[in-house]
Structures are given as C-alpha cells and as structure tokens.
Write a structure and sequence with these properties.
Elements (H helix, E strand, L loop, with lengths): L1 H24 L11 H13 L2 H23 L2 H22 L14
C-alpha cells in the first residue's frame, strides 16, 4: 500500500513538475512560419530536437508514464487514475508558480 502511494506521488511529481519545463523548452515553436507546411514541420522538428532544455523534462515525463503503467498493475484503477491526475495538476501549478507563471484564477476564460 505504501509503495502504491509513493508511486502515485512520484507519477504526479514527474508528470506535473516537468510540464512547465517542457513548455519553457518549446518556446518559439509557434513562431516558425516558412509558408510551406512540410518546411514548417521540418523546422519545428529541428528546433525541438536540438533543445536539451526540452528533452530532459520530456524524458523525465516519460519516465513518469512508465512508472504510472507499473503502478496501475499494483493499484486499484479507480483510485490510481484520479490521484495521479490531480497530483499532476497540483505539481504543475506549484512548479509553474515557482517559475514565475501566474496561477489560474476565477477569470481564466474571458467573459462575453
């Protein structure tokens, strides 16, 4: 039981804490515009594959996914899924806050 709890916390941490770093590592990808769809794809792939500050958090995130699959084998599915996902959101918010991102508030979506 303790192993499952620690695994779920680890999954939430690996998924959540890496999301803001992946977002930082991919800054500028939306500004790639060469006019050709295939050239854009090539330029975006080249941009992402050459950024170590994208790949390190991405690989840690994938380690979290492997840990999640392992945890699902030993934990009740109805508990593991909501706990891992909610911890992921919490760790994303905390890590983003420490990186200077704004916390989402009540007025996250514009009103009409």
């Amino acid at each position: 039981m303790l192993k499952s709890i620690l695994s779920l916390i680890g999954v939430g941490l690996l998924w959540g804490a890496t999301n803001p770093f992946i977002r930082l590592g991919s800054i500028g990808i939306e500004s790639v515009n060469s006019g050709s769809r295939w050239r854009n794809l090539w330029l975006e792939l080249r941009m992402i594959t050459t950024r170590l500050n994208y790949w390190v958090p991405f690989l840690l995130n994938q380690m979290g996914s492997a840990m999640y699959v392992w945890t699902l084998q030993h934990t009740n599915l109805t508990i593991a899924v909501p706990v891992a996902n909610s911890l992921s959101f919490a760790f994303t918010a905390v890590t983003g806050y420490f990186l200077g991102e704004k916390l989402p508030g009540k007025c996250k979506y514009p009103t009409v």
